[in-house]
# Entry
Amino acid sequence: QLQLQESGPGLVKPSETLSLTCTVSGGSISSSYYYWGWIRQPPGKGLESIGSIYYSGSTSYNPSLESRVSISVDTSKNQFSLRLTSVTAADTAVYYCANTWYYKVTWGQGTLVTVSS
Amino acid sequence: EIVLTQSPGILSLSPGEGATLSCRASQTVTNSYLAWYQQKPGQAPRLLIYGASSRATGIPDSFSGGGSGTDFTLTISRLEPEDFAVYYCQQYGTSMWTFGQGTKVEIK
# Structure
């Protein structure tokens, strides 16, 4: 069974770059027809999709974040990553990594990232 | 981008009553790739339903999902005290996943 685990700094300074990694276990990140993505939830608010990367390497980003975000895969480590540049306090949120494969959906437990000086 | 609209925003019910939550999509959700989640304060979302109608592991049969195309529902047959929470729908039929704004089920 697929399991996902987020990791990365819990505190990022304004204007800097937020970088998170999702480690995949129980399956190969290169497997066909997998989508790997990131979702976030600011405190007290709803869920927002950040973007995803398909097993083929094609990416799709939330238009509201597209100019600042990138998602990539490291097949040698069975991980995928999120980079969000020029962060502000509005980027403070719990960040979740997730996977879909046909009907199946799997999420990580989430990690809180606070943007503050 | 597919926009998901959940209704109602708040549902006030008593334990033992049934609940029906709606999720309407702005365009057809491919292959009914629609999921429902339950979230309680301070916790991560818990997957309840995937593929519009399949219950996730460990989810009681009091939860059921239905619908296709643009209209989907989550039904809770009999509310237990632990079922009062916020519920979200998500479509993953496109590469740009999207979520509804949530329905809060509160104790009347």
